[in-house]
Amino acid sequence: MHICLSDGWGGLEMYPARIIPELQCQGWEPHGLALSGSRVADSMASAGIAPLTVPSRGRALLQVGRILAHLRRHAIEVLHCHKSSDLRLGALLATLRPGLKLFFTDHMGVTRPKKDLYHRWAYGRVTRLFSISEATRERNLAAFPLPPERIRRLYLGIDLAPYSPQLDSAACDALRRELGVPAGSVAIGLPGRLTRGKGQRTWLEGLARLSQWTPGFDWHGVLIGGLTAAEGSDEVYVASLERQVAALGLEERITFAGFRPDLPRLFEALDIVCVPSRNEAFGLTVVEAMAAGKAVIGADSGAIPELLDTGCGRLADPESPEAWAQAMEALGRDDGLRRRLGQAARARAVERFGMSAHVRALTGEYAGDA
């Protein structure tokens, strides 16, 4: 049973629904526990399971008897939590029903020690803690009251199939026009939530430098991500980005595309994908762009350098607009280089970050000895 009692919507919340189909393909019977009316509950239902729901995190603790009965009825032996706050429930269930295996994925990357009495109790019941990169594992080893052998690095995976090219040239050109990309321009995209820490400000400053340094270079920037709080973005921050675009004189060269459910197709319309996030715990967008065969520029911080190297992408300082301008110009002026990097990136994504391999490694842990 995957437990995710969150009313938010991001990579953490999307994870259970993303892996449910592959769990079923590999012979497992996945279950879910989510908040009533949450997008997590809806996503689990869309993925093919009917989750058990509770009205709130607090009520989940009060309904522990109901949850235990559900576990017994369905012979559930594995619990997997995705928010640290859900470990209270997971640890309680594991305490009341000895023999349950409890797993936790640290999707966010812990930032402070968790070794007080409560955390020693809760994490003491965790069978295995998954770090989604080597960068986060180093922090996990320092922060959590667990021995090293119970903290494993397990990279996330994606379904590779949707990222294979599907558009013919006419459809791709039509999509570029929809995004406001002029014919003949290099389309430079930045996908992701419009929130602080994702690096949009540095990227826009880099594009302004690019415009100043190379006035004859035709490019167009595309910001892809929800523009409202309901779509996971910070509306105050979005407004500040719009003001920044105006102040930099880039209104005609930047498109705010908003939330797009067809991100794999948008990748086909882009020439370069940028991910300037300062401290990614993993970098799922990087892997998605790699799977789409795109030339990627990522921040040289957090976990992104584990995904990209000079053979399949480029890295730039997330605090340096100049570094981003230089990297974007170098790739923008060399379509052969973009093509070679994209082919190498696709090959690496297939080799290392497919969903099937991720779920096989995950279920191997589920089935292993505690």
UniProtKB/TrEMBL annotation:
The keyword Glycosyltransferase applies. Residues 176-347 form the Glycosyl transferase family domain. The keyword Transferase applies. Keywords: Glycosyltransferase, Transferase. Residues 9-161 form the Glycosyltransferase subfamily 4-like N-terminal domain. InterPro entries: Glyco_trans_1, Glyco_trans_4-like_N. One of its GO terms (molecular function) is glycosyltransferase activity. It holds the Pfam family Glycos_transf_1. One of its GO terms (biological process) is carbohydrate derivative metabolic process. This is Glycosyltransferase.
